[in-house]
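Methods, example record. To illustrate the input and output format used throughout this study, we show the complete record for Alkanesulfonate monooxygenase. The sequence lines were provided to the predictor; the line carrying structure tokens was produced by it.
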Amino acid sequence: MTATPIPPTAARQVEFISLSHLNPSTELDPIPTRGIDLAYFRRYVRTLEEAGYDYTLLPYGSSSADSFVVASAVGQLTERLRPIVAVRPNTALPQVVAQQLATLDQLTEGRAVVHLISGGNDAEQARHGDYLPKARRYARTSEFIDILRRSWTETRPFDHAGEFFRFDGFGPGFRPYGDTIPISIGGQSDEAFQVGGRQADIFSFWGEPLADLRAEIERVHAIADAANRPRQRIWVTFRPIIDRTDELAWRKAYDYAARIGATFEAQTFGRQALMGKGTPQNRGSQRALEFASRSEVYDRALWTRTAAVTNAGGASTALVGTPETVAAAIVDYIDVGADLVSIRGYDTLADARDYGRHVLPLVRQELAHRAATGQRGTLQAEHPGALAPGFDADALAGVR
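The corresponding predicted structure is encoded as:
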């Protein structure tokens, strides 16, 4: 087979992220819970580390566990895994968050990352007393980032008088383990792109068709270039559904979509009851539903039915196929510029373990081959998935 060149947009390295789960309740099988099953949580984060993940996201919501406390626990339960703390800028003063992050960074010897969530749902924001209009929430995030960075770097006390925050004589702040802490932003609104492009170290996306994602990456990088800043690392999130054969994987996918759709309708899992069933306010969910309305299958393995049946309430697009097909699809996204790939499943602990055994090694082998030879390997050519002539997901799944 003739070797093919590596696309100029391809990331040369990739790191993997998963979301940490506090208990065994899932969208497939929601179970009553008090929130934290400590034995399960310990097993889960240790599984992530053993499986070869590099980061874990600690989510935040008005009804969730505190992300900082959970991140600190992750840091003490693992040696290498980097906790990504989700923070809403309306929930604490930036000077306080800077101290919390620096403390976590020192306790984990430089592993802390922060993901700032400006807020995409008015009702959810109101639960914590935040009534700022959505467009202004990103302006607040921008000011928040400026204060975070000053808090970590100023060597003398400083004052601040901005639109959203004011204080006198703060600092010098508690310092991180290293020079700074990576700041991540996500979102698909114009305001998200402007703030993320000018100020973020990482910009995050949900899984979208390759051509659309490539255009979005170019957009955020152009804003960074205009601001004379380093280009952001690109984080993209998927919910893979894998099995031994493509046929088995697609059968599983259709079964999963029916089950998680029923869970969504019953409003019995996590934040689904808080997010509502109407038209989503956030642009990311709107885009996901637009893609789902056009087609269920895109590119090699992207499947949108899981987004459609949950009203795109969070990261919900799937990659479906064998481990080889899904690994090849992940490499497709690496080829358009993603270098942080989040994969989390619906059967949470089992999927985390299976991805570590069967998917992550294949992606890393492909990148190692590229580094050694300067050429693509055979993974993508040998596992076309939905790119194969005559592909029919309904037929594979036995749907009439």
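Annotations derived from this record:
The domain at 15-397 is CATH 3.20.20.30 (TIM Barrel).
The longest strand covers residues 82-87.
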